[in-house]
Amino acid sequence: MAATLEECDRHPIPGEQKFCATSSQSMSEFIESIFGPDAPTKAVSTYHIKRSESDDVAVQNYRMMGIRQIPSPKMVSCHTMPYAYTVFYCHYHKSDNRVYRVSLAGENGDGVEAIAVCHMDTSHWGPNHVAFRVLGVEPVDTIRVG
């Protein structure tokens, strides 16, 4: 819970707008403040398709079966955060981002439809950002793709 409070109190990085929502209504209001009240929006999320009979689905190897880019000129990400009640960490980056739907197949027959976001410019992020620690990478100005 302390990490959630710290993240919610942290100042946004340059080009970022952020908000910790404690209800679906406040999350919707933040998203509307980014896109505007009449802008068309589409919500996407990761979901697990349970196909196996095994109870142990948490840890297994997955194979990528397919990937497709979701057109998204503007994108707001909202993540659930550990806390005593519902908290969504929502943020919008003005820099170039790409959104993908990735189809995964588990070794026991399970499937996952995952959403992946690539931030193409992380040069303003702190070098100790959790994303860099998890991925074992450093900030870069621009990611060159294919």
UniProtKB/TrEMBL annotation:
Range of residues in the leader sequence: none
Domain named BURP: residues: 1-146
Native organism: Salvia splendens
Highest taxon of the lineage: Eukaryota
PANTHER family linked: BURP DOMAIN PROTEIN USPL1-LIKE, BURP DOMAIN-CONTAINING PROTEIN
Pfam families for the chain: BURP
Protein name: BURP domain-containing protein
The organism's taxonomic lineage, starting at the top: Eukaryota, Viridiplantae, Streptophyta, Embryophyta, Tracheophyta
